[in-house]
Structure formats: structure tokens, C-alpha cells
Amino acid sequence: MEHQIHLFGLNHKTAGVEIREAFALGDRPKLGDLLVHGDARLREVLVLSTCNRVEVLVADVPGRDPKPAVLAAWAKYCDQDEALLAPHLYEHRGLAAVEHLFCVASGLDSLVLGEPQILGQLKVAYRHAVACGTAGVITNRLCHKAFSVAKKVRTATGIGASAVSVSYAAVELAKRIFGEMAGKKAMLVGAGEMAELAAMHLLNAGISEILVANRTYARAEELAGRFKGRPVAFEEFISRLHEVDIVISSTGAPHVVIKARDVRGVLKARKHKPMFFIDIAVPRDIDPDVNSLDNVYLYDIDDLQEVVEENLAQRREEAARARDIIRLQVDRFGEWVKSLAVKPTIVDLLQAGEDIAHRELRKTLRRLGPDVSEETRQALETLSLSISHKVLHEPIAFLKRRAREEKGDRFIDLTRRMYNLDREGVPPDAHADRKPPKDDDFESDFDATDASE
Fold first, then answer.
1. Whose CB has fewer CB within 10 Å in the chain, the N or C terminal residue?
2. Residue 51 falls in the annotated catalytic set
3. φ, ψ for residue 172, nearest 5 deg
4. Which band of pLDDT confidence, cut at 50, 70 and 90, is reported for residue 181?
5. Directed axis angle between helix 95-105 and helix 301-368, to 10°?
6. ∠ at Cα 234 (232, 240), nearest 5°?
7. Prediction pTM value
8. What would the CATH number be for the domain defined by 2-156?
9. Fold of 166-309
């Protein structure tokens, strides 16, 4: 039963950016809708599409391989050649697909180990599948389980506790120096991608204001506007340094732009209150002699990279603990999936018992005649149904236990044949020439522990 779950995808490990761009599906991919409601007629499909991965989760009938349909539809949707996609595709089936999805939700398969954004992206993908009608029993259960597993991993491990990007590490170091960031001000010197990320992390940390200085003033205005800060003309930023507590510089200039003598004057204007300088430029923007000044803390890109590497090592250790949690939850999900196979048989078994009870009740009522009161009739109906359910209780309990085993389908098949739930025509003399079975014949299927279960 578990093999009805399939996962196909490509990510930053299996495909370069050109391939990922060619087969990207956008923020609201319609591929799942096409696979379920189009010619493929698959049962359940969930599509996760981000900048670093595209994955198609399929829950379909056992025995049918949905890979050809997924490949063809995906390539056609992107107006690309199927042969271009196939070499970069990875595939997981059964519980391996479940484990992979749990790892993705928990950030263990991300470009940045432990990053939390992927969980939000998975939730968006699930909501889209629900809205399009491509999510069913298995997809619903699997996604909600993935969300709870990711939460458990976050709370039980330190997978996301330490900074693993240079910009984030810089802000974390600032928090160590200043403690509370509320009331502090920062200046970005340079308005590139690194500075933009640092601004985002500063705001998340509670910084009160951000000043932005850039050689192109329009770019300084743009970035300052996005973060509700103030632009500063590049020619004036040295004279404004006394206003801020934190300076993050990433200009890309070929020479130093902040000299030690400049900072001495700034410290005097600030009455020697502490300042934190972060130089994430290569070559360096800030004179290394700045670090020799009292109440000044200077970190460059190498210092930050060391912090990042230490934190990554810690995350890898936490990732091992996270995988233990995931494996346990995968096993539990596998038990639930196996239980799906036995439910129709249990329903059929109970229905067969109730049908017999009702037939025998009608015979009894005819023999008792027309004078039977309604109260007596209801009492007899309750009695007959109760006997039917009690007689079937142990067989059903046994079937549930055995269905969770590796070869549980054998017991489901045996039960259906034993109670003739599929209404197969059996000739009266079908077993006339067979010898009665010996006790040993049952030992391979039913061990001694079954009697006590």
C-alpha cells in the first residue's frame, strides 16, 4: 500500500540554475490540476515550487507508475523537451518519499541547512492543492504530519538556532555586544545584496532606525524606503557616523573607505559610547587599525565566516538528532498508510455480519407471528446486531494487528476469501476431495502468540 506514494523532483543538488529556471512552475503552479483533472487522471497531486527546487508528490493507485505522466505533463507545461528534464530528476517511492518530504519541511534538504522558509512554502503549496481539488486523504494526512514533524524538529533540536549566513551572523554578533537592539541605530554603507539582507535581519532584531549610504543616491533612497530608513549622500556618510551604533559596510570599493582617524573623531562626538563595525566587503572597506580603538568592535568577512562554519557544524550535529525524530514519525505514518488497506475489508466484514443478523431476524419475526410488539422487535434487532459485532470483534482486532506487518496484505486476502466478502461463487463440492487440514498447516500463518493477542 505504501508504494502508492511517489515523489519526483529536481533541486540545487541535481540541476543547475539553467535547468531549474527552465522547469520552474511559478508561485501558483497548475501542473497538479492538470495531472489530476487532465488526461493523466492521477488521484492526488501536490506541487512544491521554489527558487531551489520543484517537487511533485503523487498519491495514486498501487501498481500504476505515474512517472511517465508526470514527466510528460511537466515538460509540456514548461514548453521544454522531456529528455532535458529526465537526467536531472530524482525519485522517491513509498516511505522513502515520506521521509524526504519530512526532511524538506524540516529544512534538512535546503541549500542553507535548517532554514525555516521552506515550511511556509510547503504550506502554500498544500493550500493551493486543496483549493484546486488535487489533495486527498493521503496528501492531507501527509502534509499535516509534515507540518507537525517540522515543528517537533524545531522545538526539540537546535537546527535553526545559530546563524549560518554572513549577514545574519553579523547581526547576531551585534546583539551579543549591545544586548537589546531596541533604541539602537545602524548605517549601511553600500546597498548591495549583502547589505539588504543585513538590513532585514537588523529590523527583525528590533533596530530602531537604518541609514543607507550609497554612491548612487537613488539606490540609497530605494533601499531606505523599503526598510523605512533614511538615505544619506555617500560624500556625507563619515560626518553622520556619530549618529549610529552599528555600521555595516559592503561597497565593493578598491580601497578603504573608513579610516581609523575618521573613527577617532566619531568616537569623540559620541562621547566614546561603543560602536560595532562589520566589514563584509572584499577588498576590505574599513581600516583594520579601527579595531585597536577603545569601545570599538570590528569584524571582517573572515571573522564572520568562522562564526558561520562553527554554527554550521552545530547544525549538522542537530540535523542528526532531527533525522532520528523524522525516522520515528515516518514509521508511524507507514503504519497509518498500511491501516488504509484493511479499512474496506473491516467495513465489508461488519456489513456482512449485519446482513446475516437482519436476515435471521426477519426469519425469527415471521415465525413469531404478527403479534410481536415494536419494543420486542427492537430488542431482538439490538440483540442480533450485538451478537454479530461481538463475534467479529476478535477477527477484526487480529486483522488490524496483522495488516501493519510487512506481509499484511496476505491476511486481508485470506479474510476476504474466508468470509467470501467478494461474493465469489463457490460450488458445493469444491472441497469434497480435500483432506481435513492438519494442525501444522496453520503454523506458518498463525503463530502461538496470536491466541493471546
1. C
2. yes
3. -65, -40
4. confident
5. 130
6. 55
7. 0.62
8. 3.30.460.30
9. Rossmann fold (3.40.50)
